[in-house]
Amino acid sequence: MNHSEELASPGRRALFRRLVKPKPVELPESIYPRPPWAQDNQTFLALCDRCDRCIDACPQRVIRQSEESHPVLKGLPVLSLDYGRCDFCDQCVDHCPTGALSKEDGRRIQAVARVSGHCQLTLNQHCDFCVDACEEDAIRIKDQRVQIDEALCTGCGECSLDCYDKAITLHKRC
Ligand code: SF4
Ligand code: SF4
Ligand code: SF4
User: Fold this and answer.
1) Which fold has domain 26-108?
2) Does residue 103 line the site of ligand 1, with CB under 6 A?
3) Which residues are 148's β-sheet partners?
4) If both were cysteines, with which of 4, 46, 162, 173 could 133 make a disulfide (CB 3.0 to 4.6 Å apart)?
5) Structure confidence at residue 129 as a pLDDT band (50, 70, 90)
């Protein structure tokens, strides 16, 4: 039996297909949070057509185009809470024409606050601006340290805005 006759047999073809089964393509993932209500990474990448309507619709100006170099990620909308807060006004999701942002399964929280800088408390100073800023009651001070309850945090960014030392920053929720 020559090589092409061998592959022509159904058993051989099945074995060949198993051996050369294509590997699933690994999709790149942004290091930044997406706007609220963004679908999971795979669905979002498939649906978002970079129309920028969410960016234009955001009254707080906290959505911007990603500058990541990967061609799949570049230009897609990301949430940027360095100088603003999100008040979950719905404008981004309501203006998304493709369903990349979708209210179907409720609000998908994309960001989370973390203590990352030089908090005044670590210098033995008194400060509780972040505690007062958090409407979700997600921040506590214990043993002269800020503690953030990630389960309660909505990633709004208010605590970061109110911290004069920028000791709290917002990150992609994993
Ligand atoms: S919910 Fe409102 S404030 Fe938040 S990112 Fe969307 S448009 Fe901007
Ligand atoms: S409005 Fe929707 S489709 Fe357009 S850029 Fe934003 S997420 Fe993508
Ligand atoms: S991001 Fe918003 S919800 Fe989360 S800890 Fe800060 S103020 Fe609270």
Assistant:
1) Alpha-Beta Plaits (3.30.70)
2) no
3) 139
4) 162
5) very high
pLDDT at residue 135 is higher than 80: yes
Question: Ligand 3: which residue has its CA nearest to atom 3?
Answer: 153
Give 111-174's CATH code, choosing from 3.30.70.20, 3.30.450.40, 3.40.50.360, 3.30.930.10: 3.30.70.20
Q: For residue 158, what are the contacts with CB-CB under 8 A and spacing of at least 6?
A: 85, 133, 134, 135
Secondary structure (3-state) at 3: helix
Nearest residue (CA) to ligand 1, atom 4: 86
The bound ligand whose nearest atom lies closest to the alpha carbon of 161 is: 3
What does the pLDDT look like over 102-120, one tens digit per residue? 999 888 999 999 998 789 9
Asked if residue 159 lies in contact with residue 130, where contact means CB atoms within 8 angstroms, the answer is: yes
User: Where are the chain's structural domains?
Assistant: 26-108, 111-174
Mean pLDDT across 161-172: 95
Among all chains, which residue has been given the structure tokens 């090589």?
3
Per DSSP, helices labelled H in 61-111 are: 91-95
- CA 74 to ligand 2 center in whole angstroms: 13
Q: What is the pLDDT of residue 123?
A: 87
Which atom of ligand 1 approaches the CA of 87 most closely?
A: 3
